[in-house]
């Protein structure tokens, strides 16, 4: 009788197309009902009340990461294509490029990280003010909302925090000269960002190189590339364009990028020469 009342008397019609959270709730209801469970029963399994399950299903409350993981355990969807944790991450980071949140999860436990960026300082090396200037510009252009801009900056802070651990990864960054010459956020923000690069390079687990304009056609990479080596020595690549991001784990696809990265390092400035350039830019000399 309780189940009948739950499904017939108090049932609210859902519109999964209304929002990502509404789609999450509608799917939660569908799978719960396929199991023949009441909201109270599912609530008991995941450690909350039936009223809370109802609020998630109808979109009155947003799911959390712990809730999504407990639902996955209850419904046996952990680490599957139907994972509620995966859907939660898509909701939270919906304004990020496809594949990027998954890449960052691997980056947070990688043994080695190699970055190449053209045009701007890569995320792990950005100051908060530099990141906020980039996000605010996207808001001004109407690309994202202010809320999404705040989420981007918070996500970056979490990403950087994951790299600070007892045994930190080897972090190598090769920056196109345009990264250090393009002013972002005004003189004070850019000066602090350049100082941050100097501080970054002084750490025992880091390496900074600048690929100068003078290498011309010998620059072997023409877009943002991130390479990860995990503890088991497997290698991943994440390549990003203006509108797409792709995480690649196929060795046949990743190895050419590794080779190109090494070729780029060979023609780039040494760390000492790179830091000399950064110091000169801080002084305002060409």
Question: How would you spell out the order of helices and strands?
Answer: HHHHHHHEHHEHHEEEEHH
CATH superfamily of the largest domain: Endonuclease Chain A
How far from one another are the termini? 79 Å
Domains (count): 2
Q: CATH topology of the largest domain, anyone?
A: Endonuclease, Chain A
The portion of residues assigned to helices is 40-55%
State mean pLDDT (0 to 100 scale).
88
Low-confidence parts, pLDDT < 50 over ≥5 residues? 1-9
**Total strand segments:** 6
Q: In CATH terms, what is the architecture of the largest domain?
A: 2-Layer Sandwich
SS element count, helices: 13
Question: How are the strands of the biggest sheet laid out side by side?
Answer: 3-2-1-4-5-6
Q: Using the alpha-carbon principal axes, give the shape.
A: elongated
Radius of gyration: 23 Å
Structural class label:
alpha/beta
Q: What percent of residues are in strands?
A: 5-15%
- CATH top level label of the largest domain: Alpha Beta
Secondary-structure map:
Elements: H1 2-9, H2 20-34, H3 39-46, H4 50-57, H5 65-75, H6 84-92, H7 100-107, E1 112-117, H8 128-140, H9 146-161, E2 170-176, H10 177-181, H11 187-201, E3 206-211, E4 225-229, E5 235-240, E6 245-248, H12 251-267, H13 271-283
Parallel strand pairs: 1-2, 2-3
Antiparallel strand pairs: 1-4, 4-5, 5-6
Helix pairs in contact: 2-6, 3-4, 5-6, 8-9, 11-13
């Amino acid at each position: 009788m309780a189940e009948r009342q739950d499904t017939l008397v108090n049932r609210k019609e859902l519109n999964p197309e209304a929002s990502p959270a509404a789609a999450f709730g509608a799917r939660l209801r569908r799978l719960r009902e396929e199991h023949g469970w009441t909201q109270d029963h599912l609530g008991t399994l995941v450690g909350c009340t039936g009223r809370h399950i109802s609020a998630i299903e109808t979109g009155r409350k947003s799911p959390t990461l712990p809730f999504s993981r407990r639902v996955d355990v209850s419904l046996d969807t952990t680490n599957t294509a139907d994972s509620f944790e995966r859907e939660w991450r898509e909701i939270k980071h919906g304004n990020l490029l496809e594949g990027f949140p998954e890449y960052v999860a691997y980056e947070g436990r990688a043994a080695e990280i190699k970055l190449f960026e053209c045009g701007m300082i890569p995320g792990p090396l950005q100051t908060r003010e530099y990141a906020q200037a980039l996000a605010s510009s996207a808001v001004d252009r109407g690309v994202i909302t202010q809320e999404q801009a705040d989420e981007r900056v918070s996500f970056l802070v979490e990403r950087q925090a994951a790299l600070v651990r007892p045994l930190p990864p080897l972090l190598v960054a090769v920056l196109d000269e345009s990264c250090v010459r393009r002013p972002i956020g005004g003189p004070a923000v850019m000066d602090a960002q350049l100082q941050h690069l100097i501080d970054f390079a002084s750490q025992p687990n880091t390496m900074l190189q600048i690929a100068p304009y003078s290498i011309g056609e010998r620059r072997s990479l023409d877009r943002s590339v991130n390479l990860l080596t995990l503890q088991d020595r497997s290698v991943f690549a994440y390549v990003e364009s203006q509108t797409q991001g792709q995480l690649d784990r196929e060795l046949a696809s990743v190895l050419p990028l590794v080779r190109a990265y090494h070729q780029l390092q060979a023609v780039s400035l040494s760390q000492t020469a790179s830091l000399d350039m950064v110091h000169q830019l801080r002084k305002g000399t060409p």
